[in-house]
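Appendix B. One record, verbatim.
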Amino acid sequence: MIYIDGSYGEGGGQVLRTSLTLATLTGTPLRLDRIRAKRKKPGLAAQHLTCVRAAAALCNAECKGDALGEIALDFIPQTPPQPGEYLFDVTTAGAVSLIVQTVLMPLALTPGESLIALRGGTYVPFSPPVPYLQQVFLPLLERMGVSATVELVKWGWYPRGGGEIQLRVTGGGAPRGLQLRDRGELTQVRGLAVVTELPSHIPQRMANRAENVLRDAGLYAKVEPRREKGIAPGAALFLTAEYERSFAGCGALGRKGLPSDRVADMACEALLQFHHSDAAIDRFLADQLLLPAALASEESHYRVADVTLHLTTNAWAIEQFGLAKIHCSETEKIISVYPTG
């Protein structure tokens, strides 16, 4: 049994998700203690508990401590990961993208087709929004040999949730390594300004503002305004920068009292900050690529915008399973992943 201290480094949910993924893939019994110890409310919240139950469903794991608020968990896989059709409901606005992070690689490495319906929050604070998965994360994973798509069925916002996505995975291959020190020239910037249960002039205003701000900065962008389905009011702007060899994504959430122009400004400021750097990978994608890189058949090297605590914590969690050695250069901002499996 592998013991993981959930308070290590950032002490958040990423240690839990990475550990569950690798325990599911390797069949290794896992004991997690002090789960999310450095968060305001430690222990398993609804989205983390859903990650546990999703991983357990894939490998028929026996679990002890799989309850809301628990700070210790025993997770004992009984079978290899099983492809198929699954439904997982967070029941809150917890981010469905974090469930995707947990189940994607076990299914991608297992021969067979899988369809997973996930319900919860599709665009919530401090988590990758679904457009990020669709336009940044999964397209780059496709270049590494991982075949998966996400369809957004219904939007869900904090605090109501109620969103839904469908994840399709074609499994059976081993991911390739990633060599991405230079992103190349910018080829296009596109965006999505979306609202639910709000007037249609709001997404149009966000889209116009974003296009104007980026044009003033020398970037041409096409931002699509949409009024979509959802059970509660919500608004967001998401921008994708596509380069010759990479992608980057930045967004901003609306909230009551925050002008739509300010939402657009926030997303544009984040995108321009990345664009004016020499990074090939944005700070959010940097740690999300560690798992597929660690499971690849070749080593990986990529230049990131920042070596964050989130990234180094995830690297530590992966190394506990002995599947890869990971080096994070603070000076050159190069992440090197050397698979050992």
